Amino acid sequence: MSRVMIYKRFERFWHWCQALLIFTLLFTGFEIHGSYSVLGFGDATQAHTLAAWALIVLWLFAIFWHFTTGEWRQYIPTRNGLFAVIHYYLIGTFTGAEHPYRKTTRAKHNPLQRLAYLFFKLVISPVIWVSGLLYLFYADWPAMLAGALELEWVALIHTAAAFAMLVFIIAHVYMTTMGHTLTSHIRPMVTGYDDIDEK
Description:
Blueprint: E1 2-5, H1 9-32, H2 41-69, H3 82-95, H4 111-136, H5 143-148, H6 151-176, H7 187-191, E2 193-196
Antiparallel strand pairs: 1-2
């Protein structure tokens, strides 16, 4: 085991900015939906729209970074060790078993994480963005699109994607607490350094 820089500066910046913007979007989105009233509908709508555009810009930079650095390979799914990791999270973590996956700089995410992050990036996020942009530009829909889509369905899909995002975040935060200590999985995303197996 050696202590190495595993999460680069931009990676940490992107992660924490994304988290802040997603929490802002969830908070304002559920207020727009009428779940509670804190900011007021008008301010919540404005904050929601600004946060959405900021997240789109951040994601464009993140996509560029992933492809230019080759970090996109971290998300390629694999079945190698997948069932051992699932067994660990279902049973092993409650019986004191050791985690079956050994992180390296070339493979930061275990097989289950890869699937979860890929699902987040290729399913939840595109659905929430397409439905959100359709919702935002409803007044500009061409006649053909307006005849094929109903705003109510776009709103329902957007809300369903928001709940999927919320479930993902709850699971993600919960999983970060399953290390040797409560913060051992969070610390590397703050400092960049982690103890990993560099075989």
